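Database export, one record per block. Field names are fixed; values are copied verbatim from the stored entry.
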Amino acid sequence: MQTLSVQIQDSYMQQFMNFVKQSHSNITISKDKNLEMDPYFYERQIELQQIRADVKSGKIDMLSEEQYNKEIEDFFSELE
């Protein structure tokens, strides 16, 4: 079995659901709560995993809270 994400135009929803009813032995529909809350959940998840891997490998640095605050202060000072 394969899983797909499908976007359906509101005006076509009833026809789609009729098709699913007719094909119920071959199609299972379930809502993904992650996508309901954030349509880009899985893209963001992949990006976060890559950032974590880069931090662990030393490719990018993880700033301490103090370093972060200092950089933000410097940034805003430059804007003024």
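Remark 1: The mean pLDDT is 92.
Remark 2: The CA atoms of residues 34 and 52 lie 20 Å apart.
End of record.
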